[in-house]
């Protein structure tokens, strides 16, 4: 029966190999991140790339450093022959993982196209599928946004790539508009003057192009006046400017005695009540 002493050299050899692998991996990973990440960031920044591209490149370089550190550390520790033997199996594993991680790969590819096409960049306000938020980070798999309620929203890149994305922040100027309804008997010019004056007072409203109000519809119960003014989206949020204009416009129209009708139903006609006669049986 073999004694325990016979296994001691093998155990020591395994422990020593594992220790060499661990030390080599830690050193290579730490040095790689310290050098390559810093070099990548400085190189991209010097060429004027935006923060979204730099963030995506940082994620890719980190993954490459991790894989490279594992491969080199395994070779140093003497796992090279094992790696060669497992290379054929690795191909099958990669194929299986590819089928299982279709969504992950789709998000990764979408992230690359988002960075390349630049439909938005960090700091932009975007709208998609009835959602809105400020872009805070573009990562390898997801894009992180901040809602107007200061919530962190994490969206898969494939969802943004497959959706119609509206970017109000891309241009230097943005028009803010809102529809006000007034009564058919009210003075259009009086309402127009009041709404233009209130638009001029909205924080961030520009004087050029100047605010305007136009009749855009004749509704069932109201004449629709659309108030429009322009802001710089880099300085003021469109939602805040629009909210301020709606409140100011409502108060001003009330002060001017201008009616703001709303749809309602009116029942006409008469209702008759039939008398019930009781018949007593003798």
TrEMBL record:
Q: Which InterPro entries match?
A: LSM_dom_sf, MS_channel_C, MscS_archaea/bacteria_type, MscS_beta-dom_sf, MscS_channel_2nd, MscS_channel_C_sf, MscS_channel_TM-2
What does the record say about its membrane topology? Multi-pass membrane protein
Keyword Transmembrane belongs to the record: yes
Domain named Mechanosensitive ion channel MscS C-terminal: residues: 176-260
Might you report a single GO cellular component term?
plasma membrane
Protein name, UniProt field: Mechanosensitive ion channel protein MscS
Q: Which family does it belong to?
A: Belongs to the MscS (TC 1.A.23) family.
Q: Where is the Mechanosensitive ion channel MscS domain?
A: 103-170
Enumerate the subcellular locations listed in this protein's record, separating them with semicolons.
Answer: Cell membrane
Coiled-coil intervals, chain numbering: none
Keyword Cell membrane attached: yes
Q: PANTHER family from the entry?
A: SMALL-CONDUCTANCE MECHANOSENSITIVE CHANNEL
Q: Which residues cross the membrane?
A: 12-32, 53-76, 82-101
Q: Which UniProt keywords apply?
A: Cell membrane, Membrane, Transmembrane, Transmembrane helix
Annotated Pfam families: MS_channel_2nd, MS_channel_3rd
Gene Ontology molecular functions: mechanosensitive monoatomic ion channel activity
The record's annotation in Gene3D superfamilies points to: 1.10.287.1260, 2.30.30.60, 3.30.70.100
């Amino acid at each position: 029966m073999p004694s325990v002493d016979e296994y001691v050299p093998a155990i020591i050899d395994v422990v020593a190999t594992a220790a060499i692998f661990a030390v080599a991996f830690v050193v290579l990973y730490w040095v790689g991140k310290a050098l390559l990440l810093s070099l990548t960031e400085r190189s991209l920044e010097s060429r004027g790339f935006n923060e979204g591209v730099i963030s995506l490149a940082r994620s890719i370089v980190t993954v490459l450093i991790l894989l490279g550190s594992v491969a080199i550390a395994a070779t140093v520790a003497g796992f090279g022959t094992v790696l060669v033997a497992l290379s054929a199996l690795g191909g099958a594993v990669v194929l299986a993982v590819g089928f299982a991680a279709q969504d992950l790969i789709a998000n990764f590819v979408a992230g690359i196209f988002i960075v390349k096409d630049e439909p938005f960049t960090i700091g932009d306000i975007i709208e998609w599928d009835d959602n809105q938020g400020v872009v805070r980070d573009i990562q390898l798999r997801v894009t992180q946004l901040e809602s107007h309620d200061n919530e962190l929203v994490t969206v898969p890149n494939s969802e943004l790539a497959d959706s119609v994305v509206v970017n109000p922040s891309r241009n230097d100027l943005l028009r803010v508009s809102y529809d006000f309804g007034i009564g058919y008997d009210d003075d259009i010019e009086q309402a127009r003057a009041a709404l233009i004056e209130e638009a001029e007072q909205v924080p961030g409203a520009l004087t050029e192009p100047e605010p305007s109000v136009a009749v855009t519809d004749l509704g069932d119960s109201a004449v629709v006046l659309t108030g429009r003014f322009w802001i710089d989206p880099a300085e003021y949020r469109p939602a805040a400017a629009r909210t301020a204009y709606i409140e100011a416009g409502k108060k001003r129209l009330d002060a001017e005695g201008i009616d703001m009708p709303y749809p309602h139903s009116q029942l006409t006609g008469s209702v008759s009540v039939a008398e019930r006669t009781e018949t007593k049986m003798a």
